[in-house]
């Protein structure tokens, strides 16, 4: 093919077509587009056939480990804007996860259940300790708190519908309860947050459970943010704030500090709701062993532990990436705290932060959790980071797969936005179907793994069913390194 | 009038009786004796009852109150009338910290002094304090009014939004983004009405008004040192 291709006419005429361009010219070109391909091309064009090193040898470009491209870009951005980076989504750094564990399955020493035939239960009852009306969920996957404000009304409605179809619960968020979500959610958990936006006793009573939010995995010790564009009239009214301000949520509750106060606070909430509702306490994963023990002491029915992979609609990147501990060690510490108090399974444990699949669910339950909660993954099921409306991702300076621009309120797929034209991209019915499908898949996956381990209920999974693939995961999760009896630190 | 003696009846039983009353009930007047600093007394009321408590209360007395009038003939513990929605809560003595925290409506009157964080995170409640308030009062106050007939401690109105503060005495210091503002005739009238509603005698002319400079409503690098 190459031999048959006629040479360009111009080259033929000049007779000097093979002459390389000047070095200056090719160097300028290389600097313009520093892609690996461009670098290789430059090396070839700038090289000297007689062994003389090129003036611009791209092999000599040595990136700094301390200052890689994204760090340089962040310093340039900080210098330009004078403000820490605020973004959505969760931690992007590499962390030990449930992927570092495997389930052992059955063979000769244990036998499995028939994968496609024998029943494997998935229900979970939450709030059995003090609440007069505990809630029973059909599946151990709940939807984590995400505010109306951070999410648009269509997204909230889609989540409510999907959760209801699957027989699980959904949760309000920082900003109060909307009619849409109460109507669309059979089982709704109402958050009592430090900001107390939209908090009122009527909603407290029409909730099915109450979650006192002490912290969140994405920002333990910090409050959320909702930047101006998302503080529309409706959101502002619900939160009693001026329209368009950059709203910064409180980090501490206004009327209690410390575990002794929390005990009294929980009692007040029980009094107001006549001891009917299960009361959860949600903490970001940090000093999990102490926090869980103190939440139990304070009278929680359910403890929710959110690892550092947990997402957020908007907070400082420095928080997302540098505060808290991963979900993996947090589950172990929480279970140990409950066991120490003889409260494991009496106070239920919900784990969240980076749960993405039925494998994650099965592993979290095997470690001792009673249920998991998903936030980011539910948004992804609704279309977050889907390769559609590509131009709108580009307008935000990102690509599908990299987007963490919830904070801008310009979500290309209509999930984390208050703009009507963007919200219209998410049909609540379609969204509900997507999320329902995804939840079904997660449950099927968890059941498949549980049956393979010989369990007739996902709660029968146990730490003995797990092995770790890395020393780090073995130490953090407290399960032996695969092929050994070794748990570092024990 | 029904009298409940907390020496022999639990707070649970009391609240349960108060919550079970039907709308339009004739049992509108309640007297509670021997409160002994119990927590969450008369929390979560929803009807226009009149509840008078003879003695000191613990945390969260009249928490999340709606429509009822709760009078404490004594001192009140932490978070009295927290997140009040409507109605009135009156403390004849002093109140501990976080009085009327995140209150969304109604009137809270503290005839004595209030402690730290009075009116923290307030969202529409009107608070009138006959005495002084402690540090960080009206912290993050979003809307409503706080009237202080005595002095205010350090960092009054830190990170305040649209709430309006009136102080008769000395303000030890103002918090971030809180400034003194002009007392217009309209503001003087509001203050006069608040004092009248609270039944507290004071001369509106002697008060100063404070509110938000609104400089921290949106992020700006040049305001970073405000924190």
Short description:
The complex is a heterodimer of chains A (490) and B (227). With 490 residues, chain A is α/β, with parallel strands linked by helices.
Class by SSE composition of chain B: alpha/beta
Strand segment tally of chain B = 11
* CATH homologous group name of chain B: Glutamate synthase, alpha subunit, C-terminal domain
CATH class categorisation of the largest domain in chain A = Alpha Beta
Q: Which regions of chain A are unreliable across 5 or more consecutive residues at pLDDT < 50?
A: 1-31
Radius of gyration of chain A: 27 Å
**Percent of residues of chain B in beta strands?**
15-25%
Spatial shape of chain B: elongated
Radius of gyration of chain B: 18 Å
The greatest interface here is: A-B, 32 and 42 residues
Low-confidence stretches of chain B: none
- In the CATH hierarchy, what is the superfamily of the largest domain in chain A? Aldolase class I
Q: Which architecture name of the largest domain in chain A does CATH use? A: Alpha-Beta Barrel
Strand order of the largest sheet of chain A: 5-15-14-12-11-8-7-6
Helical residues, percent of chain B: 10-25%
How many β-strands of chain A, per DSSP? 16
């Amino acid at each position: 093919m190459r031999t048959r291709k006629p040479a360009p006419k111009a080259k033929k005429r000049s007779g000097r077509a093979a002459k390389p361009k000047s070095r200056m010219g090719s160097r300028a070109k290389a600097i313009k587009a520093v892609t690996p391909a461009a670098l290789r091309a430059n090396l070839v064009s700038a090289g000297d056939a007689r062994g003389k090193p090129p003036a611009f040898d791209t092999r000599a470009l040595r990136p700094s480990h301390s200052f890689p491209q994204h760090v340089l870009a962040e310093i340039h951005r900080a210098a330009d804007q004078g403000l820490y980076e605020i973004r959505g989504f969760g931690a992007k750094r590499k962390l030990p996860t449930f992927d570092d564990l495997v389930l052992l399955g059955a063979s000769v020493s244990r036998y499995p259940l028939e994968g496609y035939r024998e029943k494997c239960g998935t229900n979970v009852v939450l709030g059995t300790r003090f609440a007069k009306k505990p809630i029973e969920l059909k599946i151990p996957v709940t939807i984590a708190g995400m505010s109306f404000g951070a999410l648009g009304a269509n997204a909230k409605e889609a989540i409510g519908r999907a959760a209801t179809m699957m027989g699980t619960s959904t949760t309000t968020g920082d900003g109060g309860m909307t009619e849409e979500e109460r109507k669309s959610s059979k089982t709704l958990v109402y958050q009592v947050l430090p900001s107390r936006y939209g908090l009122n006793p009527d909603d407290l009573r029409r909730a099915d459970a109450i979650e006192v939010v002490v912290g969140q995995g994405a920002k333990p010790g910090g409050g959320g943010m909702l930047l101006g564009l998302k503080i529309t009239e409706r959101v502002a009214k619900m939160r009693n704030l001026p329209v368009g301000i950059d709203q910064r949520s409180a980090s501490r509750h206004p009327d209690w500090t410390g575990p002794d106060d929390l005990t009294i606070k929980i009692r007040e909430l029980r009094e107001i709701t006549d001891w009917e509702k299960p009361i959860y306490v949600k903490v970001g994963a940090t000093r999990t062993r102490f926090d869980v023990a103190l939440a139990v002491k304070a009278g929680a029915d359910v403890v929710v532990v959110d690892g550092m992979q947990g997402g957020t609609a908007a907070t400082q990147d420095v928080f997302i990436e540098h505060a808290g501990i991963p979900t993996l060690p947090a589950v172990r510490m929480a279970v140990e705290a409950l066991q120490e108090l003889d409260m494991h399974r009496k106070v239920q444990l919900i784990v969240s932060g980076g749960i993405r699949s039925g494998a994650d669910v099965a592993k979290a339950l095997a470690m001792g959790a009673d249920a998991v909660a998903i936030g980011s993954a539910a948004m992804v099921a609704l279309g977050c980071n889907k390769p559609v409306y590509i131009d709108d991702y580009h307008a935000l300076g990102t690509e599908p797969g990299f987007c963490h621009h919830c904070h801008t309120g310009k979500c290309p797929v209509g999930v984390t936005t208050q703009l009507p034209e963007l919200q219209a991209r998410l049909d609540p019915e379609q969204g509900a179907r997507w999320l329902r499908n995804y939840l079904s898949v997660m449950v099927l996956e968890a059941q498949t793994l549980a049956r393979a381990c010989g369990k007739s209920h996902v709660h029968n999974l146990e730490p003995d069913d797990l092995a770790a693939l890395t020393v780090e995961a073995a130490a953090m999760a407290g399960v032996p390194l695969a092929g050994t009896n070794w748990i570092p630190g024990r | 009038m029904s009298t409940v003696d907390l020496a022999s009846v639990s707070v649970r039983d009391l609240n349960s009786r108060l919550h079970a009353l039907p709308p339009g009930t004739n049992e509108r007047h309640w007297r509670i004796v021997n409160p002994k600093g119990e927590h969450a007394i008369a929390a979560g009321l929803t009807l226009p009852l009149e509840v008078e408590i003879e003695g000191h209360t613990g945390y969260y007395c009249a928490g999340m109150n709606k429509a009822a009038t709760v009078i404490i003939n004594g001192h009140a513990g932490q978070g009295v009338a927290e997140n009040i929605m409507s109605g009135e809560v009156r403390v004849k003595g002093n109140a501990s910290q976080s009085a009327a925290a995140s209150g969304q409506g109604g009137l809270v009157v503290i005839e004595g002094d209030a402690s730290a964080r009075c009116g923290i995170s307030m969202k529409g409640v009107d608070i009138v304090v006959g005495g002084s308030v402690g540090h960080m009062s009206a912290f993050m106050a979003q809307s409503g009014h706080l009237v202080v007939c005595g002095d205010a401690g350090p960092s009054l109105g830190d990170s305040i939004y649209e709430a309006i503060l009136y102080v008769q005495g000395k303000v030890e210091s103002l918090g971030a983004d809180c400034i003194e503002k002009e007392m217009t005739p309209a503001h003087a009238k509001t203050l006069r009405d608040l004092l009248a509603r609270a039944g507290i005698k004071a001369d509106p002319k002697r008060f100063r008004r404070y509110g938000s400079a609104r400089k921290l409503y949106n992020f700006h690098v040049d305001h970073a040192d405000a924190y």
